[in-house]
Every structure is written in C-alpha cells, then in structure tokens.
Specification:
The complex is a heterodimer of chains A (476) and B (263).
Chain A: H1 14-22, H2 25-45, H3 49-68, H4 70-83, E1 86-91, H5 94-107, E2 112-115, H6 119-123, H7 126-132, E3 136-139, H8 142-150, H9 166-176, H10 186-203, E4 206-209, E5 213-215, E6 220-225, H11 229-235, E7 239-245, E8 249-250, H12 256-267, E9 275-279, E10 293-299, H13 304-307, H14 323-326, H15 329-334, H16 345-356, H17 358-361, H18 373-377, H19 384-396, H20 414-427, H21 430-442, H22 468-475
Parallel strand pairs in A: 1-10, 2-3, 2-4, 4-7, 5-8, 7-10
Antiparallel strand pairs in A: 5-6, 6-9
Helix pairs in contact in A: 9-10, 16-19
Chain B: H1 2-6, E1 14-17, H2 21-25, H3 28-40, E2 44-46, H4 56-61, H5 64-75, E3 84-86, H6 89-102, H7 107-117, E4 120-122, H8 123-131, E5 142-147, H9 150-155, H10 159-167, E6 172-175, H11 190-193, H12 195-211, E7 216-219, H13 222-238, E8 248-250, H14 251-258
Helix pairs in contact in B: 3-14, 6-7, 8-10, 12-13
The chains are: A alpha/beta (476), B alpha/beta (263).
The complex binds iron/sulfur cluster.
C-alpha cells in the first residue's frame, strides 16, 4: 500500500493500485480477516431478520424525511443553533470550509488544534490547509493519529488504519515518537499514543470535530465515538469547531435513537458506543467546563448535485456506518486506498462522483460486480447497485445527453457506443440474432483463445456447436 | 412444505421458457434439461422462437437505450397469461425488477413491462413455489456444493429454493462453503473491465468450493458457472491436472440426471 499521501485522482492509477493489493497475499489475508470479523460482529447484533428490516425501513424513512425537507430543516437548524449561541457558517466547497476554520483559528490566535475523527475534514484536506497556515492540527482518534504519523490517508471511514499491522504501528511509534522503544504489545502501544495525546489536549487552544446527526428542532450536534477523544476535542479547548455535510441534519430529537442504534450496530457491531456526545451550547456562566465558543461549518462541496435528482438524492441518506465496505467483496480484495477517494467502497463509488465530478471518478462506478451485498446491509436502504448503474449510464452517455451532472459523459466513447449499438441491432432483431447465433455456434472453432481480461484467469468462452433452439428443433 | 402448499398459485398447464442468450449459445444442454424437467411434470413448455436476450449486459454497462431496444423486443413474446420461466437468476432479476423502470417514460410500455415482470419466475423458484415438485433420488451417494447467484439471492430472494430442491435428494449431501453468500466475481462486463479484481474474487470462490471436497458444483445461473468453471479449468491447466478438479453443471441438468432423466 502506498506510503505517500494520496492525492485525489482516483481514475488515474486505480487499476494499478488495485492490482498491487490483489497480488499482495499478506494484504489479501489481513483484509479478509478484518472484514470477516466486522461482518460477524454486525450479524450478531441483528439476530432477528424482521426486526432488522423494520429498523432499516425506519432509518430510511427518517433520512428521507430529512432530505425531503432539507432546505427548511437547515434553516431551522441554523435558527436554533444560533439561539443556543452556536455560530453557523456555510461553505460551498473545500476551500471555503478551510478558510472559515482557519479564520476562526486566527481570530483566537489558535495555533494548536486537536481533532476528533472527521471524514469531512479529510474530504476538504484540512490538515494540508492547516499546515500551510501554521496551525498544528493533531489527529486524536488512535487510528487517525497513526495515519498522521505515517503520512497516510484513511482506508476505511470507521476504522481508518485498518490496513496497518501492529508491527507497522510499533515501528512507526518507535521511529516517530521521541523516547519510545519498539513494542508490539497493543495495550502498550495504545498507552503510548494516549500519553502523547493527553498532553496535546491540555495544550490545545482549539478543537475540531465532525457531526453524526444535527438535530434541527433543538439545535443539537450529536457525536458518536469510542475513545473519548471526541469528547475531549469538543470540551477541553476554548473553542470548538464542528464540521459536517449539509445532509447530516435530522428533523427531530426522537429521530436520533434509531439512527444511532443502526449506526453502531452496522458499523462495529456494538449495541452502543462508549461515548455519545450531544452538544447544544457553549459553556454557560457558572459551568465548569466546555468551550467558550462553538461553531458549526455546514459544507456542500457537491452534495446539492445529487440532492437535485430524485433518484441520486438517496445517496445522501448515508449515515457513514461503513457496513457497505465491510460486506463488499471488491473492497475486501483491494482495500480502501486503491479507490483514491476520501470515501472508499460502495458508498465512495456513489458519493465521490458528486464531490469530485465524473471526470475524476469515471472508473469507480464500474468497479463493482453489482452483487448487491452493500444494498442488502445498508442500514438506511440506499439502493447502491441501482445508483451505480445510473452513474454508469451518466458516464457513458454522450456529453450533453444525460443529467446535468458535473462530468456527465466523461467516459463517452464512440467505439463503445458503436459496439453496444451493434449489439442492440442484433439482439433486438430476432432474425439477425438467429443468423448471428447460428454463425457463432457453427464457427465456434474460430473463437479466439485470448479474450482480453477474461482469459487472464479463465479458459476461453466458446459457444456450443448447437444452440438450444437447434436442440429443440432436433427433438421434433 | 405444507404451508407453502396451501398458498401456492394454481398449477399452470403451460409456461413460456425464456432461455436467455447465455443458455441458448453456451449452455444449451442446461436449457434442454430444464425444459425436460418441466415437461416431466406435465407442463407444456413454449419456447418463443423470437427470444434473444433480456438486455441486461447493456443495462448494467450503462447503455440503457440499447438495453431498452433489446428488452422491448422481448415484451412481445408472451401473449398468453402463462408464467415465464427463466433458468437464470440474474436474467429473471432483470425482467422482474428492472423492466418496469426501464420503460418508465412510456405508460403503455410500462404497463406491458409490469404485466411481463409479474409472471417471471426463476427456474428453481418455479419448481418449488409454483409446482411444489417432489423429487425422487435415483442416484448413488454424492456430495455437491451449490452456488447461488447474487441476483437470485438478493434481487429475486430465491436463495432457499435451490437448496430445497437438492435437499429432496436423499443420496445427495450438500456441502457448506466458506463465504457462501459472496459474489463469484462475474458481474458481466465487470469481469473484463476489472480483470484483476474479478480474477481475485473468482479465485477465492473456486478455492472455497473446492475446499468442501464436493464432487461438483451446481448453480442455477450460467453466468456464474461460466466464470467459476472457466477459472477452475484454467487453474487445472496451469497446475497440470488432466481431470477437472471442480466439475459443475446447471442445477436442471443435475436434478434431471439424479431423478431418472426425461422418461
Ligand atoms: S451507504 Fe449505507 S452501508 Fe454504506 S456507509 Fe452509508 S449508510 Fe453505511
């Protein structure tokens, strides 16, 4: 796996990257073991298929309700947050979001930031922007911290360092953390990380976090986590900045428990997480802790594109549980980095085209056998395979002939279009089909022995000497 | 099975057989065996001469106009109200679940597509849920392993019917494989567009199937069979085996053979 930070051009090099992982026996085994573990844990949380199905339907309805009323709910969220004393900012794209956060840092003279886990901050590549602005942003989620030391990006949205072995981490800690001796003892490694981070929490003047659910009716930001670093990042420093995508809003407080339950059970197979934070106000007079100032940055960054399309809007139902990757045979074989996007796996294949445009992501929707395992486990019932097929058609259609998606037609090829037209001309016409299939069966010995990718690991496909219709005719 | 028997639809006199292009051209024997099995049950099987392909290859590749053209031609093949039996979960899934949306722009065609899709049955589903078939095993003891396609499993929801049929054969033991519900890596054009990933997937599948020690793999989907058997044969060749290490066939062929042939 690449040791260098990846920059976002997934179409380029996707095949080489995935090939490298597929050919690495060690990675094959370790991804397989990790995914098996997660699948087993999730399955144990849902012993009752009917309960699971009704919970998924409820999750789907809650998320669809949020999206149906999105503009109104966002306004309501802003009103209630503001009333609670939380500052709300709107960012159209990554640059704006980075500028907003760095501006807040500047206003407070903040130079040391602690970060709770936030995939949106990965999406906007905040750490690069912070570094350029002279702000030290330290990841405090253990997985993210490991990756920051290694100079890598997450390979999974829930378990960012799932591609790393304890030996690699032991080596990394010994090399990168002053005074640390090499140890493969996992508990010791965690303690080493915690000791470093504890100091960072004490010194930090600003904290950054993501948001799992933003409740419109109350103006509450919910944060789900296991390590307590999220709580520390949002309470220890003087200032807390939360960042999230505009789709994360839910209408009512009562919508949170079912989504929370679906999230933790689907993601890590936990009935609940160790921490569940609800942030509704900055520190009030007389209170002993909590930040003096709280901000929320609401990011679009391409999300309004699927929002505008009834079918593609379903993409935004996602609660980022990662179950689709854990159950995806493609992800299991190539890991997260091969995708080259912030969000890998099935959800990455359907969301990245909107965040980055179809030019940059044209290969991704094709990297699926459409087996449907993702859609089957998705706790909010996103029809991922259908959305992949839809994106394929947007990619392959002639520029200007599909929906107004950024990069529509990016994979348009005159040759491929001609091939499929030719195919349709034969198969839509019974007489042509009869002639064609007669020819390929009678001349099946002419079938080439090399059939591109197919014969790289398979014997060639050869039509039978007689078709079924011939066998039937012979019977009579 | 008694409960299923009470809610079973009336037993039809006749059915349409939609073979699919893969069966017509690559697995004609499987198609013939499926037809013989249906006929043995006293069903008249009609094979519309003008059938070609359900349109799925173009559909999943994102060429929807082309898929629509081909699918459109199939809509006219089934004028009588008979069930349409398809010996492939993925083609059945295409006709049952994607035809209506494919013609959404044209109300008349949508109605036609809905009428067709409502009558589509995957072959094993039809044998179990409509015919309530009883099979009498005539063969000697053997161990097989069943591969159920992802479309049959997730789109058609018929992953239990193949197992139920094999379960009726008292000399046949059905092996359990690791990662049974995992895709074999076929995925139509996926297998040629992403050969490394598809290749790794089929390798895992073949290893899991072989590890069961089963004498053969059976499946109700010829797409998966092409992929699985093609890889197993390639591997045999690579490793210098002359006897196939994983032979396989369509479940129709296996069932017919085990139960005494066409009669
Ligand atoms: S698409 Fe569904 S399964 Fe995948 S991360 Fe989102 S909510 Fe989870």
């Amino acid at each position: 796996m690449s040791e260098k930070p990846l920059h976002f051009m997934p179409t380029e090099g996707f095949r080489e990257r995935s090939k490298a992982v597929v050919e690495n026996e060690f990675l094959q085994k370790s991804f397989r073991a990790a995914m098996d573990f997660l699948m087993t844990k999730r399955a144990a949380q849902f012993p009752d298929a009917d309960e699971l199905e009704s919970l998924r339907r409820l999750g789907e309805r809650i998320r669809q309700n949020s999206l149906d009323k999105l503009p109104a709910l966002l306004t309501q969220l802003e009103t209630n947050l503001t009333r609670n004393g939380i500052h709300v900012h709107w960012a159209e794209n990554a640059d704006q979001a980075n500028a907003i956060i760095l501006d807040i840092c500047k206003k407070h003279g903040a130079k040391r930031m602690v970060k709770g886990k936030s995939m949106v901050s990965e999406e906007i590549e905040f750490n690069h922007a912070a570094e350029a602005a002279g702000v030290e942003a330290i990841e405090t989620d253990m997985g993210e911290y490991i990756l920051q030391l290694a100079g890598e990006k997450p390979s999974h949205i829930i378990m960012p360092a799932i591609h790393k072995t304890k030996q690699q981490i032991a080596k990394l800690f010994a090399e990168q953390i002053p005074g640390v001796a090499y140890t493969e003892d996992v508990d010791a490694l965690i303690q080493i990380g915690r000791t470093v981070l504890r100091q960072k929490f004490l010194e930090a003047d600003i904290g950054l976090s993501g948001v799992n659910f933003a409740v419109a009716e109350t103006g509450t930001l919910c944060l789900v986590e296991n390590e307590g670093n999220g709580r520390l990042s949002t309470t220890a420093p003087r200032v807390h900045v939360a960042i999230t995508g505009i789709e994360k809003v839910v209408e009512k407080l009562e919508h949170v428990p079912p989504l929370f339950s679906l999230l933790t059970r689907s993601a890590t197979g936990q009935a609940v997480t160790t921490y569940f934070n609800m942030i509704s106000k900055p520190r009030q007079p007389g209170e002993k802790d909590g930040p003096e100032e709280v901000h929320l940055v609401l990011l679009d960054n391409g999300r309004t594109q699927p929002y505008a399309d009834e079918e593609l809007r379903k993409t935004l139902q996602c609660i980022r549980c990662g179950a689709c990757m854990n159950h995806c045979p493609v992800y299991t074989h190539i890991g997260g980095h091969a995708y080259g996007t912030t969000y890998p796996g099935p959800i990455g294949e359907i969301i990245s085209p909107h965040l980055m445009g179809l030019e940059a992501t044209a290969t991704l929707p094709s990297a699926s056998s459409l087996c449907g395992a993702c859609g089957e486990v998705c706790p909010v019932k996103i029809p991922i395979p259908d959305l992949l097929v839809r994106l394929r058609s947007e990619i392959n259609s002639k520029p200007g002939s599909g929906s107004p998606l950024q990069g529509q037609g990016a994979g348009y090829s005159r040759l491929m279009t001609a091939v499929w037209r030719g195919w349709a001309a034969i198969y839509a016409n019974p007489a042509f089909y009869r002639l064609y299939s007669w020819l390929v069966s009678r001349f099946n010995w002419l079938t080439p022995a090399g059939q591109g990718g197919w014969t790289s690991v398979r014997t060639p496909l050869r039509p039978a000497p007689k078709r079924l219709r011939d066998l039937l005719a012979e019977r009579e | 099975m008694t409960e299923a028997a009470t809610c079973r639809p009336p037993r039809p006199q006749a059915v349409y057989f939609f073979a699919t292009c893969v069966v017509d051209q690559f697995f004609p024997g499987a198609g013939l065996d499926a037809i013989r099995l249906l006929e043995r049950e006293g069903i008249t099987v009609h094979f519309p001469e003008n059938q070609t392909c359900c349109g799925q290859p173009a559909y999943t590749s994102g060429f929807h106009d082309e898929a629509r053209r081909v699918a459109r031609a199939q809509l006219e093949l089934f004028p009588e109200p008979w069930p349409i039996v398809v010996p492939s979960g993925s083609c059945a899934g295409m006709m049952k679940h994607h035809y209506p949306a494919l013609f959404a722009a044209d109300p008349a065609l949508t109605a036609k597509a809905v009428a067709v899709s409502a009558r589509v049955y995957e072959f094993t589903e039809f044998l179990v849920t409509v015919l309530g078939i009883t099979l009498e095993d005539r063969g000697g003891p053997t161990k097989v392993v069943l591969h159920t396609s992802c479309s049959a499993r997730r789109e058609m929801g018929v992953h239990l019917t193949g197992r139920a049929l094999l379960g009726q054969l008292n000399q046949v033991s059905v092996a359990q494989q690791e990662h049974e519900a995992e895709c074999c890596g076929f995925g139509g054009t996926f297998s040629v567009k992403h050969p490394e990933i598809s290749g790794a997937m089929v390798q895992d599948k073949v290893n899991a199937l072989r590890a069961t020690g089963a004498e053969r793999v059976v499946s109700a989907d010829c797409g998966c069979l092409m992929n699985i058997l093609g890889h197993a044969a390639w591997k045999d060749r690579q490793e210098g085996r002359t006897r196939p290490s994983l032979p396989g066939e369509h479940i129709a062929t296996f069932l017919l053979k085990r139960t005494g042939g066409a009669q």
